[in-house]
Amino acid sequence: MNAFLTRLLRLGLLLIFGIAIFALAPAVAQNAETLTGTTDRSIQIRQITGNVSVGGKPAKVGEQLREGEKIITDSNSSATLVVEDGIATLQLSESTQMQVQNLDTTTNNGKVTRVFASRGQVTAFTRKLINPESRFEIAFRGDDEETEGGIAGSRGTVYGVAVGPNGKTGISTKEGEVAVTAEEKTVLLGAGTSSLVFPGKPPTLPRTTSENILLKVKLLSPSANQKVRVQAEVDPLNLVFLNGQAVEIGSDGKFDTVIALSNNRSLSIVVRTPLGQQQVYELEAAGVNQP
User: 90 and 198, same structural domain?
Assistant: First the structure.
């Protein structure tokens, strides 16, 4: 009797073990289908204006960018890129630095594309992605140009990011929906809304995008050694370039900086939105002593 019970117990354990393996097998297979692997995908340069470089060398139309490669646009320069299969078209404004971070393909043929904007402005025109594993993301900097501060991802939309010299990043959505994530918090931006991200902080709540490119100059006073002090205010979403140099902007949109003057005492201030709209202001610093 004891021997019979022992054999019966062993048989039961074998049956339970076999059922457990059978139940686990589909789960393992399902997980394997979602693993990503690097493929020979690329992003092609379609148009160049001015001085644009890749890896420290002049960029060429038709050049293919692979994972890890970095493209830089100089002042008064721009570039248009197209992600393989027409997944997205990227427009890079002047003084922009962007790296190709990931060009992966999942085992279910999903396309995972991520670029990293460490400064400047990028507009993305992404087509609707059918495969549920496909996604397109623009990562942006944190405290420095090598540190990632957040991600703006989409699956078919038009949106832009503007990354300032201090890491302040404005994100605006023109069409569709974009998920902005930073500091483990995500906000969803619908069409016509925007958010701000400061290094070390979560995204601000969505607000209506005004595309406000107004510049309010509060003080334009002479300084010593042919320099001038500029105090002004813009929409904090925007980027500001003063005589070609990016200016740090506070959370309130204000900036206060001193800059050397050219011989004609003129100042050129460019205000650029996350979607790439811009306004150029030409000012003259009167009252500055000539050498």
Answer: yes
